[in-house]
Design goal:
Length: 272
C-alpha cells in the first residue's frame, strides 16, 4: 500500500518526515527517561538528570545542541549520554525512509507511529529492562485503530471471513496476529518459570508481541520475531562471552531485539 510521488514532491516529503522524526525523537528521549520513573512527560520542562537544571530552548535543539555543547551539560559539565542524539537521529532516518517507501499516505503515518513506539521500547528495555504499558498497550490500541483504515495483510482474516468487507478482515487479521504471536511465547515463558522457579519471560515482552502482531499481522509478525530472536541469540551470546557473564542468570533485553527485528519489517513488505 504505497503511494510514490513525483521526484520533486517526494524529496520535499522525505525532508518533512525526517524533520518530524527529528523533533519527535527529542520528545521520545523525554518519554524514555521519565515514563519508567513514573514522571510526567509534560511538566516540568526538560532538565539535566544529573544536576536538575532546566535546559534552555537553545540547548535543546535536536542533534545540533548536542554538538555545540560538545556532549556536555551547560550547568554541570557532565557528559550527555549518547542515547539522546542516537534516538533523534534514528527516528529521523526511519521517518525519512518510511516517506520514501510509502509516500504521502495514511500507511506512512501508521508506520511512523509504529517505528516511534519501537524506538522508545528499544531503549527503555535496553536501559531499564522495562517495556512500559503506555507504549505496548497504548500502541496496541493505536494499531487496532489503524487496522480500520490501513489493511493488515493476513491469510487468516481472508480465509475465515472471505465474504466480509476488507475492514473486518483487517481487524480480524490484526487480532489473530496478536493472539498467535503471544500465546506460544507466553506458554513457554510460563512453563520455564514453573520449572526453573524464576521469571523467564516478562509480561512486558508478551505485550510487545501483542503490539507487533496487531500492527504487522501474524505472518509478518512471525518474521519480525524470527529476526529478533536469531539476532538476539547471536549478539547476546557474543556479549555474554565477551563480558564473562553467567549465562544462567544474566537477563538479556529480549524486547530490544524484538523491536529491532520488527522495525525492519515495514521496509521489507514487498517480500510478503
Amino acid at each position: 500500500m504505497r503511494g510514490r510521488l513525483p521526484v520533486d514532491y517526494q524529496a520535499f516529503y522525505i525532508a518533512f518526515f525526517g524533520l518530524t522524526g527529528l523533533l519527535l525523537g527529542s520528545f521520545l528521549n523525554v518519554c524514555i527517561y521519565r515514563i519508567p520513573r513514573d514522571l510526567s512527560v509534560i511538566t516540568p520542562r526538560s532538565f539535566c538528570p544529573e544536576c536538575g537544571i532546566q535546559i534552555a530552548w537553545y540547548d535543546n535543539v535536536p542533534l545540533l545542541s548536542y554538538l555545540l555543547l560538545r556532549r556536555r551539560c551547560r550547568g554541570c559539565a557532565r557528559t550527555i549520554p549518547p542515547r539522546y542524539p542516537l534516538v533523534e537521529f534514528t527516528t529521523a532516518v526511519l521517518f525519512a525512509l518510511i516517506a520514501s517507501e510509502y509516500g504521502w499516505t495514511l500507511a506512512a503515518c501508521k508506520w511512523c507511529i509504529f517505528e516511534a513506539l519501537l524506538v522508545a521500547l528499544f531503549w527503555t528495555d535496553l536501559e531499564e529492562r522495562l517495556l512500559p504499558d503506555e507504549f505496548t498497550l497504548g500502541g496496541t490500541a493505536a494499531g487496532l485503530i489503524f487496522a480500520v483504515y490501513v489493511p493488515v495483510p493476513s491469510a487468516a482474516g481472508t480465509l475465515l471471513m472471505p465474504a466480509a468487507k476488507t475492514v473486518w478482515q483487517s481487524l480480524l487479521g490484526a487480532a489473530i496476529g496478536g493472539i498467535l504471536l503471544v500465546t506460544p511465547i507466553w506458554t513457554v515463558g510460563a512453563l520455564y518459570s514453573w520449572v526453573r522457579k524464576r521469571e523467564g519471560l516478562g509480561l512486558g515482552d508478551v505485550k510487545l508481541l501483542l503490539l507487533i502482531g496487531v500492527f504487522l499481522g501474524f505472518e509478518r509478525g512471525l518474521f519480525a520475531m524470527l529476526i529478533g530472536t536469531i539476532g538476539g541469540s547471536v549478539l547476546g551470546a557474543v556479549y555474554i562471552l565477551a563480558k564473562r557473564r553467567n549465562p544462567s542468570t544474566y537477563e538479556l533485553p529480549f524486547g530490544t531485539f524484538l523491536c529491532a527485528g520488527a522495525a525492519l519489517v515495514p521496509f521489507l513488505s514487498k517480500w510478503f
